[in-house]
Specification:
Layout (H helix, E strand, L loop, with lengths): L29 E2 L9 E11 L2 E6 L1 H11 L7 H8 L15 H11 L10 E5 L5 H8 L3 E6 L2 H15 L14 E6 L8 E5 L2 H8 L8 E7 L8 H11 E12 L9 H12 L4 E8 L5 E7 L1
Parallel strand pairs: 4-5, 4-8, 5-7, 8-9
Antiparallel strand pairs: 1-7, 2-3, 2-6, 9-11, 10-11
Length: 301
């Protein structure tokens, strides 16, 4: 089974963070290019992730860690070495993209409950995509999808492999007892998919897309677990206002509160209402209260 027929590693309720060692410039916006990589392949271990939409696949976290260990100095100051060793977030340097956060699965569950076929032909952007499973779900539903993460390394290690895993026939003859599957990915597949990849800071991406023609803007913008830092709220809103078409929608999936972090969903929504006012409607369309409260908010422009 391939495009698209989804576990995720157990996730903590809250993120652990490291303070940045020093101030660093915001990561410049960059679109990744895979032209000329038709002969490139990558061996990965994939695992299923279940949702109400069915099963998608993602690169196993241990496989990502193994690649980092094989290519980087795990004893030095390397950014990803710090991430693997001790933290979920390094403010201003790494924004959690190596993990599959639970609200991303909530978002898939909700999107799959909407009218069948509504995504076909839509232009979709997932901001802070990381594992990119909501965006991959949309890709499988016939949308053209752009996937963005702060860290280019995350796109290469997780996002791009996850797209390829789900676009490749899943071997059924030799799954491991854990449910994981060894796969060989061919980067030539990317040329046949309506998908693009963007790295960099939201403010820089907004500047890069400021002159985007109206017809190239997005019908749907998705983001999950990205409002935990209050200092990023203005950037997120500025970017969304720049790239969404009139009549477009934004879906924000988040925990209501992020203990130990500066941002919360009520705080973000208060700012959104102040900034957007009558130019949009804001409504909560999904709530989970059995554990930590999680919500999905829809903003219609």
């Amino acid at each position: 089974m391939s495009f698209f027929s989804f576990g995720q590693e157990p996730e903590p309720t809250e993120a652990t963070t490291l303070e940045p060692s020093s101030a660093v410039p915001a990561a410049a916006a960059k679109q990744l290019s895979f032209d000329g990589e038709e002969g490139r392949t990558l061996s990965v271990i994939a695992e299923p992730v279940s949702s109400a939409a069915g099963v998608l696949y993602k690169r196993h976290a241990a496989d990502v860690t193994f690649e980092i260990a094989a290519t980087d100095d795990m004893e030095g100051e390397n950014l990803l070495a710090q991430v693997v060793a001790q933290t979920d977030l390094i403010p201003g340097r790494y924004e959690g993209g190596l993990k599959t956060w639970e609200c991303s699965i909530d978002l898939i569950d909700y999107l799959s409950s909407l009218e069948p076929g509504w995504l076909r032909g839509k232009r979709v952007m997932e901001l802070g995509s990381g594992s990119s499973l909501p965006g991959i779900y949309c890709l499988g539903q016939g949308a053209a999808v752009d996937l963005q993460d702060y860290n280019e390394e995350v796109l290469h290690l997780v996002t791009v492999p996850n797209v390829l895993i789900n676009a490749t026939p899943i071997p059924t003859d030799a799954p491991h007892s854990s449910g994981t599957i060894e796969m060989e990915l061919d980067y030539a597949t990317l040329s046949s998919l309506p998908v693009r990849f963007w790295a960099g800071d939201w403010g820089c991406l907004r500047d890069a897309m400021r002159e985007m023609p109206e017809e190239n803007k997005y019908d749907v913008v998705l983001t999950a677990e990205t409002i935990y830092a209050a200092e990023s709220h203005e950037k997120l809103l500025d970017l969304v206002m720049t790239i969404v078409k009139p009549g477009g929608v934004v879906f924000i999936a988040a925990k209501s509160m992020y203990f130990g972090c500066s941002g919360s969903l009520p705080q973000f929504l208060q700012l959104a209402q102040k900034r957007l006012g009558a130019a949009c409607s804001i409504e909560t369309v999904w709530v989970e209260t059995r554990t930590v409260r999680r919500e999905i908010v829809k903003i219609t422009f």
